[in-house]
Hints:
By secondary structure, this protein is mainly alpha-helical. The chain has helices at residues 3-27, 34-42, 56-65, 77-88, 116-120, 146-150, and strands spanning 102-106, 126-127, 135-136, 156-160.
Amino acid sequence: MTALSALLVLTLMGLLLGFALGLAAKVFHVETDPLLDEVSALMPGTQCGQCGYAGCNQAAEAMVKGETPVTCCPPGGKTLAATIAGKLGISISLDSMNDELLLARVNPGLCTGCTRCYKACPTDAIVGANKQIHGVIMAACTGCGSCLAACPERCIDMVPESKALDSWHWPKPIAA
Ligand code: SF4
Ligand code: SF4
């Protein structure tokens, strides 16, 4: 077989496979609910399970079906709840939601570097190595608490998110 014929055969195979894939994409295309796609796209995607569902897509589906309140996602907080309520065209009260996001912090004096929290974290927010003190990257933490349950030394605390320029806002006026 000459190089040219080999090239022709490979090109033909590539075209055929491309055509087959395109056809399969059309034949096996699953219609999805565009509203569900929009709500799913808004979710944090950490799959932390604080909402009580297996993952963010399941929670989004339940919200769209009205099976669970749009306030069920702690990492998403009030901002996410208000955005999803707007998408669903529903009015909600955010008063029941906690203003303050609690994030994980390792007590360096007690950490033994067992790496269990590091393996439990769904967002890779924990840094550390074996027998080394671990630490939490607050910006990556969603406050899911999975590390809390994993730590044998009970040396992880959930503390309020430290206020930064992008998370600070004027405190609400206290009603007279
Ligand atoms: S609470 Fe712990 S496990 Fe959850 S995201 Fe934060 S560091 Fe990771
Ligand atoms: S699980 Fe606890 S003791 Fe182990 S590394 Fe993490 S913080 Fe340290």
